[in-house]
Amino acid sequence: MFHNKVIDYSSLFLENYFKHYSFDFLFTDKGFPDRYRVPSNGLLNLIELPFILLGVWFLLRNYRRIGLFLVGWVLIAPIGSSLTFDDVPNLQRSMLVFPSISIISAYGFINSYLFLKRYKYSLIFTTVIVLTFIYSILFYLHQYYVHQLVHRPWYRQEGYVELIQKVNNLLPDYKKTVITNRESAPTIFFLFYSKYDPLKFQKEKEGKFLGESDSVSFYKYEFSDEECPLRIDDKTKNLTGEDGILYINSSHCNKDIPKTNLIDTIKRNDGSEVFRILEVKR
Q1: Which of 212, 246, 205, 207 is closest to 229 using CA atoms?
Q2: What radius of gyration, in Å, describes the C-alpha atoms of the chain?
Q3: Rounded to an integer, what distance in angstroms lies between the CA atom of residue 237 and that of residue 128?
Q4: Distance CA 125, CA 143 (A)
Q5: pLDDT at position 267, please?
Q6: What Cα–Cα distance (Å) separates residue 66 from each residue in 32, 52, 102, 107?
Q7: Average pLDDT along the chain, 282 residues, taken 10 residues at a time
């Protein structure tokens, strides 16, 4: 059994390792986590590929020790990320490799320019490359500032800022609020955007078991594992909530729940609903 585990883990490690050098990861938007993806953009521009290959060749020919150091840097960098099991290949964990790739690419460009300069093609070469880089940069900026705002926004916890503002405005009229953690990590958002005193929070939780650190209830904020804290229970057919409490359901819950009032809805930048604010009818 130990032998089989070694083979399985080794295979998984190698699979993860080589994913970091795949075309999809480096030049398209196939990296993880999803919230950092820029549509139709990878970590590198395609125009850089020939210069990276040329840079390796020129470095190994002219500065072998430096070339081996930089190539080794590129080969070693993904090892840590490859030992993990989630979000592989990972955009954040791969950033360590890019100083070396930038140096290699720049050296490849410089040597290509010097080579073509002998044949009086340097002006044409430089013009084409510069225009291509300008286009790539402008394309990236357009994708980032225009398209990413509405591209798969459910991976970026959108809606919390507006939700917290509205909940805090309504909360004085309620005993507490019960909030679904369907969109993940609600505690840190409510602490940060409510400007809750860190010292006060620490004193409240001192000596207490916190459980899941991203869903720690505090003050009047109670975070629920239920996707729909306010609903009709399937077994009892009764309403799960009570009067005087503000409920935050996921948008995946039934919209029309008997004996409840829908106070407001929170939407993402693409117009899709993410939260619903409700109360029990009085």
Answers
A1: 246
A2: 26
A3: 69
A4: 27
A5: 94
A6: 31, 15, 14, 12
A7: 71 92 92 90 92 96 95 94 89 90 95 88 88 94 92 87 96 95 88 94 80 80 93 91 94 91 93 94 82
pTM of the model: 0.77
How many other CB atoms sit within 10 Å of the CB of residue 187?
A: 21
Question: In this structure, what is the dihedral angle of CA atoms 231, 236, 238, 244, given to the nearest 10 degrees?
Answer: -70
Q: Which residues contact 197 (CB under 8 A, 6 or more apart)?
A: none
3-class DSSP assignment, residue 182: coil
- Residues 196 and 213: their CA atoms lie apart, in Å, by 16
Q: What is the pLDDT of residue 149?
A: 85
Question: Both tokens of residue 178?
Answer: 């019960």
What are the residues whose beta carbons fall under 8 Å from the beta carbon of 203, sequence distance 6 or more?
none
Bridge-partner residues for 237, per DSSP?
Answer: none
Residue 236 DSSP code? T
DSSP string, 96-163: GGHHHHHHHHHHHHHHHHHHHHTTT-HHHHHHHHHHHHHHHHHHHHHIIIIIGGGSSGGGTTTTHHHH
The candidate with the shortest Cα–Cα distance to 179, out of 71, 62, 63, 274, is: 274
> Which residues are within 8 A (CB) of 204 and not within 5 positions of it... i.e. 6 or more apart?
218, 219
Do 57 and 105 form a contact (C-beta atoms < 8 A)? no
Q: What is the per-residue pLDDT for 2?
A: 57
Tokens coding 79: 């090892």
Q: Which long-range contacts (CB under 8 A, 24 or more apart) does 236-239 make?
A: 239/280
**Is there a contact between 41 and 140 (Cβ–Cβ < 8 Å)?**
yes
